[in-house]
Automatic annotation (TrEMBL):
<comment type="similarity">
    <text>Belongs to the SOS response-associated peptidase family.</text>
</comment>
<keyword id="KW-0190">Covalent protein-DNA linkage</keyword>
<dbReference type="GO" id="GO:0106300">
    <property type="term" value="P:protein-DNA covalent cross-linking repair"/>
</dbReference>
<dbReference type="Pfam" id="PF02586">
    <property type="entry name" value="SRAP"/>
</dbReference>
<dbReference type="InterPro" id="IPR036590">
    <property type="entry name" value="SRAP-like"/>
</dbReference>
<dbReference type="GO" id="GO:0006508">
    <property type="term" value="P:proteolysis"/>
</dbReference>
<keyword id="KW-0456">Lyase</keyword>
<dbReference type="GO" id="GO:0016829">
    <property type="term" value="F:lyase activity"/>
</dbReference>
<protein>
    <recommendedName>
        <fullName>Abasic site processing protein</fullName>
        <ecNumber>3.4.-.-</ecNumber>
    </recommendedName>
</protein>
<keyword id="KW-0238">DNA-binding</keyword>
<dbReference type="GO" id="GO:0003697">
    <property type="term" value="F:single-stranded DNA binding"/>
</dbReference>
<dbReference type="GO" id="GO:0008233">
    <property type="term" value="F:peptidase activity"/>
</dbReference>
<keyword id="KW-0378">Hydrolase</keyword>
<dbReference type="InterPro" id="IPR003738">
    <property type="entry name" value="SRAP"/>
</dbReference>
<keyword id="KW-0227">DNA damage</keyword>
<keyword id="KW-0645">Protease</keyword>
Amino acid sequence: MCGRFTFDIPPELLVGIFGLAEAPVTTPRFNIAPTQIVPVIRQYADGQNHLDHLRWGLIPSWAQDVSIGSKMINARSETVTEKPAFKRAVRYRRCVVPSSGFYEWLTEGKVKTPWYIRLKDGSPMVFAGLWETWKSPEGDVESFTILTTAANGLVEPLHGRMPVMLSGDGLLTWLDRNTTNPAGLVHLFKPYPVDLMEMWPVSSMVNNVRNDSAELVVSLRGDPTLEIGRDMASRRGKHYGID
C-alpha cells in the first residue's frame, strides 16, 4: 500500500512534465498522510491538465459521511473496475499524484523501521489515482485514492503492495479523458522496474505526522545528506525527457 509520501517538486518541473498552463504555487511536503490536502493533476474537458488540491482518501458520492475516506486511501488495481466506489471513477475520473518518494516500514519482531523509496535519478514519481466529488451541506469535497499493484523486488521485503507508477505514454493514457474503457488501462498496472528505484532506512520521526521536514528523508546509513534543494530541478526532469 501507500500510506505516507513526499512532495518536493519545483513548480517549473511540474509545468514541464504535465504541460500545465502556468507554474502552480506549491509547498514542499515530507510527511503527507491520509485525510490531508494534496496536489494532484487532472485533465479538464478542454484537454488541458491542471493542478488541484484534493483530500487524500476517496469519499464515494453515495457515502453518508467523510469518515469512509480514511479507509479508501488506496485502491487495488486488480479489482478497481469491480468495486462500487471505484468502477465509474476509473472510467471518467482519473488523476495522477506527483510525488518525490514514499515510505514503507520494515517489521522485524516488534521493531518497525521506516524506509524511504524513490527513483534513482531523483525524478518525480507519478502515482495513478482516482478522484470523486462528495456533496455535503457545507459544500463539495473532492477526494482521491492511489492505485496499488503487487510490489516489485525492491519493495516486496517491506510490503507486498506498491503504488501504480506511470511514465511516458502510460501517463498520457491515464490522464486522457477520451479513454473510458478500463480494458485499455490494465497494462499500466504493473510493478515499476526495480533497476530505476532505490531505498534507504530513515528516522522514526516520520512516524509522527506532525514532523514534516527534509530531515525525514535523510539516510541512516551514514550516506551524505540527501540533497533536496530546488536546484535539483534540471536533474529531476531527465526521467521525463526534460533538460
